[in-house]
Amino acid sequence: MAEIHPTATVHPGTVLGVGARVLEYAVVGKQPALGPRSTAKRDALPPTEIGAGTIVSTGAIVFAGTTVGAGCIIGDQACVRERVTIADDVVIGRGSLVENDTTVGSGTRIQADAYVTAYSTLEEDVFIAPRVVTTNDNFMGRTEERKALMKGPTIRRGARVGGGAILCPGVEIGAEAFVGAGAVVTKDVPPGKLVVGNPARVLRDVPEVELLP
After folding, report:
1. Residue 81 has pLDDT above 90, yes or no
2. SS (H, E, C) the chain
3. pTM beyond 0.85, yes or no
4. Tell me, what's the pLDDT at 139?
């Protein structure tokens, strides 16, 4: 009912939906190995669940405790860490990394080599262009205070983030907002606005013709 390539590794307890495919050298259900200073939770993890028709492509890794919906594609050499929830019809592009404790809504597209940091929220129909970088730690690994304040961005329904943009910790990208390529977003972006530059600033409204129904 599911296809597992002979070179793939599927750890015990993993649940594969009907028609799911795990391709060459992919790894599903991997337990995390955490460093002594890691802020990630260390609770026991439930098995990985892969939805019907989802493809885990060549060399991709999906960690334990993660749920991937139906009809998704986890691209070649992509990595999805533990306690991630991915809804249906999501694409994780080649070489992208989705870190722990992140939620990705249905229909979202994360393009090649993007980095989605831990504790992020991406709602439905979000578009993340290649090599976008998100961040979650204003203290860059120092002071105990950072642990309580660590938070990735929240990207609302239909928002789009252009190639190479950088989103600073905790920012909110409003519904249907558009972040231009290479922008550095240091504060919240209002819904339906186009922002550009470093630091990002509002340039204009997103045209109505570009909005989701």
Report:
1. yes
2. CCEECCCCEECCCCEECCCCEECCCCEEEECCCCCCCCCCCCCCCCCCEECCCCEECCCCEEECCCEECCCCEECCCCEECCCCEECCCCEECCCCEECCCCEECCCCEECCCCEECCCCEECCCCEECCCCEECCCCCCCCCCHHHHHCCCCEECCCCEECCCCEECCCCEECCCCEECCCCEECCCECCCEEEECCCCEEEEECCHHHCCC
3. yes
4. 87
